[in-house]
Design goal:
The protein is α/β, with parallel strands linked by helices and 448 residues long. Helix content is 29%, strand content 20%. The strands form 4 sheets. It has a 7-stranded mixed beta sheet with strand order 11-10-9-14-15-17-16, with helices on both faces. Strands 1-2-6-5-3-4 form a 6-stranded mixed beta sheet, with no helix packed on it.
């Protein structure tokens, strides 16, 4: 173990060798630092999300191969280090994995880009990606990302790394999140720089975990040759697919953990859920599918292009969703809805259609336009909502016409005119955290 004095000498030597004359950029708000300086943390002057001396999340921009050969690594989740190769960010394949634009973070610049980056040349792809105030595609103004610290890779960098941190070699992409425990494969979510909507993490995920736990207990008592037909979780207006990604990763990890406890390799082959992102935007799949594939959940997720204003198409989607069976890849299986959720997506016609759904297949003969949802189906909504029944909406976005009344969902799903169909599990108000706008966190479960 080297002394602190030795480490400081190495730190000064690295500054002389690889840092440009100007070690900061006042215009862009970042400073060029050593690993040691990065590990000492950052004191934010503007962001409430970064506490004093927090170690900033680090985005390693090197290629997969370079990252897998040698990279920064610690034994716990702090500091957070995520490999997002520069070319995948420029192409858009993994750009949705960057943190929100109000979150401060650091980047590690590949050695092949350090000279151009230090010169601040207008041709520097890293500068254009992170600090441009205008979109190159649409020419619309945008907020630059809050990159506060920059580590420049050099030949000496990893000598410093060997002293400061332990590092290991890991397999690429999806293999990183999987490991073998005897004959059973375990799965763990990859590090992420973004957070899901609170309803997803605190409301929907616990319900899905509870359902998984019951399924595992039931499956352990069944014959292993029993045919497994997955149930489906639908995200309405899924956008970039990050909420789908979060749920699929966390539920898959929980499922494999449960299987490990039972030491059941046979059950481990039959993951009981399939996650579907539904959106009317034609570019949605191009954003979602690479994200899901890169994070090891491509086999349990799919995207569906659908006009959610056409109820006949909605019925067909919920009742006839099919996908390739995981165990017999040459056959297609149909699934049943387990959970439907919408995050900051409002379609009142669709919500009314779901609220009035039937749980009886027989009634479909008399009302062919009705939607069938089995008893137990979960409906969850997180959307902008007035905080009280008498409150006004004082924000420009979204418009008041796209904001829910405080008791609107409770009235819709709690309607007992033709019998009680839903049990309301959650009906809370919270803040969006960005502008002080209020959101409703609503969950109901079908009981009839």
């Amino acid at each position: 173990m080297r002394s602190q004095a030795t480490l400081e000498i190495m730190d000064r030597k690295r500054k002389r060798d690889v840092m440009p004359a100007s070690a900061s950029s006042p215009s862009h708000g970042y400073e060029i630092v050593t690993i040691n300086k990065w590990l000492h943390g950052w004191s934010s002057k503007i962001s409430s999300t970064t506490k004093a001396n927090d170690i900033l999340p680090l985005v390693d921009l090197r290629s997969y191969d370079e990252f897998n050969k040698t990279h920064l690594h610690t034994d716990d989740a702090t500091p957070l280090i995520v490999n997002l190769p520069l070319e995948t960010l420029i192409s858009g394949e993994r750009s949705c994995e960057l943190p929100p634009r109000h979150v401060e973070f650091a980047i590690l610049v590949p050695i092949s880009c350090t000279e151009l980056f230090s010169s601040r040349n207008s041709q520097c792809s890293i500068h254009n990606l992170f600090f441009a105030s205008k979109s190159s595609a649409t020419q619309q103004s945008r907020k630059p990302w809050l990159v506060r610290q920059v580590i420049l890779e050099s030949e000496d960098l990893w000598n410093e790394e060997r002293v400061l941190l332990n590092y290991i070699q890991m397999k690429r992409n999806t293999d990183v999140s999987c490991e073998s425990k005897g004959s059973v494969i375990s799965f763990r979510p990859l590090p992420r720089l973004w957070k899901p909507d609170p309803l997803v993490s605190s409301g929907i995920l616990p319900l899905l975990k509870d359902w998984i736990r019951k399924q595992c207990n039931t499956s352990s008592r069944k014959d292993n040759n029993h045919q497994h037909t997955p149930w489906t979780v639908f995200d309405l207006g899924s956008g970039a697919g990050r909420d789908v990604c979060y749920l699929a990763e966390e539920v898959k990890a929980f499922y494999h953990s449960s299987m490990l406890q039972q030491q059941s390799n046979e059950q481990n082959k039959h993951f009981p859920l399939h996650f579907v992102g539904v959106d009317h935007h034609r570019g949605s799949a191009k954003r979602c599918e690479p994200l899901w594939r890169n994070r090891g959940i491509g086999d349990i997720t799919s995207s569906h292009l659908l006009n959610l204003n056409k109820m006949d198409l909605v019925n067909d989607c919920f009742m006839n969703t099919s996908f390739i069976n995981q165990t017999t890849t040459n056959e297609k299986s149909k699934s049943k809805p387990l959970c439907i959720y919408a995050i900051r997506f409002l379609n009142r016609k669709l919500l009314s259609h779901i609220a009035s759904s039937t749980s009886s297949i027989e009634s479909m003969d008399h009302e062919p336009s009705s939607l069938y949802l089995p008893i137990g189906t979960i409906m969850a909504i997180s959307h902008f909502c007035k905080p009280t029944k008498t409150a006004d909406w004082s924000f420009d976005h979204p418009k008041v016409s796209n904001v829910l009344e405080r008791d609107e969902l409770n009235t819709l799903f709690g309607n007992k005119t033709d019998g009680e169909k839903w049990s309301i599990l959650m009906d809370d108000i919270c803040s969006d955290g960005d502008h002080g706008r209020t959101l409703i966190q609503f969950i109901a479960r079908k009981i009839a």
